[in-house]
Structures are given as structure tokens and as C-alpha cells.
Amino acid sequence: MQELKDTIDKSRLPRHIAVIMDGNGRWAKEKGQDRLYGHFHGVESVRDIVEGSAEIGLEYLTLYAFSTENWDRPENEVTGLMELLVDTIRKEVPTLNKNNIKLHVIGDMSMMPAYAHKELAEALEETSKNTGLNLIMALSYSSRWEMIRAVKQVAIDVKAGKVQPEEVDGPLFQRYLATSAFPDPELMIRTSGEFRISNFLLYQLAYAELYFTDTCWPDFRKKNLYEAILDFQKRERRFGKTSEQLQQPAGTI
Ligand code: IPE
Ligand code: IPE
Ligand code: MG
């Protein structure tokens, strides 16, 4: 484990890793348990991955914990999962502070229950001065929700004369996204053998490297995270250019 961590090139770490934590339900079912049992164990993976990310000096980690579409799941699962998420975030604040981790939340908070607003606001406030890893929890989040909200806000600002239509470009649009304070993810991991993006950071993942693993989220540990990072470091990121261009010093082609 120590060895695997040491083989990571710290000078070429992705700045931002985003994770679709999937497979809790199937993991539980395989054990003859109900879905909430899987979510409960998924929390242990969250702890381990957050700790593992902080240990290697990662700057940004986004965890997709609950999608806008997940509100349509059976009521007992929604209620149980929401309580588990909010309670966990609240209880982990001392550990986050100890590890200098700053919490952020992205998502449609208008759909969240009142108690969640209060608990999350307190957790955000209590970790706001930390300067290490930025932990971004995507809760009640979906990319289409985020983009539609952004377009609406741009339209409102254009109408109010605060923005000219000619000024609307990539950097301006980015400022209207829920992720405006964060760089785009460079590596996106999805667990449980599904090859989908499922409405997650559609705009921001444009040039992310995608990594899929069959491991279900409750079994995903630091070791698996480090394997994904090592895989990322073997890849050539071209951003639309040719491989030859990337070999040349900047400005020569
Ligand atoms: C991921 O596990 C957690 C959430 C989506 C909230 P799932 O609950 O989607 O588990 P599977 O994919 O049904 O196994
Ligand atoms: C994506 O997983 C959302 C989260 C992990 C929070 P889902 O299990 O909801 O996605 P689909 O339904 O398989 O696309
Ligand atoms: Mg799933």
C-alpha cells in the first residue's frame, strides 16, 4: 500500500478528481441485505478516499453522493440516504478540521429538507478556514439542473444590462456554474462497472480522463484510488492537439 502510494508522481497529480460513487445497492443485495446497508458501508469508503486524497496532497475531490434524479427512488431509501449523508457530514467536521479539509456542497438545495440546510450550513462554516483539500459534495446535483440555472441567470443579467450578449464566452459561462470556484476535474472515476456519466459535470468533464472499475463503491479504498491515479499518469492528454505537437516546446508548432 505504502509502495503503491510512493509510485505516484506527485509532480503530475491531477488537481481535481471527481467520483461517481456507484454500486451500493448491488453490493448490499449480493450480501442479502437491503440497499441502505450498502449506503451505510459506502460511508466507510468515503472516509477512506477523503483521507487518501488528503494524504497525497490532492487539491480538489468531488464526490457525487446524490443526484437530482435520485429523489425519485422509493421514499424509505431517499429519507434514509439523505439522513445518512447529512449526519455523516455533520459528524465528520472535527476530522475534516483536523486534516485541514474545506467542505463545499453543490446541488439544488431547494429540494433538500430544512434540517439539511441547517446542518450543511454549519458544516460549511466550521470548515471554511481550512486550506488543504477541497472536498466538494454533489448533493441533489445534476448537470442539466446546473446548466439550465446558469443559462437562466445569464439571461437575467443580460436583461438587467449587467452582461452584454457579446461578452458571453467560456470563462463567463463558467462563472455561473455551481463549480465556478474549482478547476475542471482531470480524472473522473466511476465504480461498479457502469459506463455512464449520469448527468454529472457534463460541461466540466469535457477533457477529463475517464476511469471505470468493476469494484462497487463500498469496496473502493485508497488502494483503488491510487491505482486510478497511476493509470491517469500513464495517459497522454492531448486536448485536441496531435501527439507530435505535445512533444514540442510550447510555441514551436
Ligand atoms: C450509489 O449506489 C449511491 C447513489 C446513487 C445514491 P446505488 O444506490 O446507485 O447502487 P446501485 O447502482 O443500485 O447498485
Ligand atoms: C449516479 O448513480 C448518481 C450517484 C452516484 C449519486 P445512479 O445509480 O443514480 O445512476 P444510474 O441510474 O445508474 O445512471
Ligand atoms: Mg447506481
UniProtKB/TrEMBL annotation:
Homodimer. Substrate binds at residues 23-27, 35, 39, 67-69, 71, 73, 190, 196-198. GO terms for biological process: polyprenol biosynthetic process. It comes from the Bacteria. Its cofactor is Mg(2+). Mg(2+) binds at residues 22, 209. Belongs to the UPP synthase family. One of its GO terms (molecular function) is magnesium ion binding. SUPFAM superfamilies: Undecaprenyl diphosphate synthase. Keywords: Magnesium, Metal-binding, Transferase. Binds 2 magnesium ions per subunit. Catalyzes the condensation of isopentenyl diphosphate (IPP) with allylic pyrophosphates generating different type of terpenoids. InterPro entries: UPP_synth-like (IPR001441), UPP_synth-like_CS (IPR018520), UPP_synth-like_sf (IPR036424). The active site is at 22, 70 (proton acceptor). It is an enzyme of class 2 (transferase). Its EC number is 2.5.1.-. This is Isoprenyl transferase.
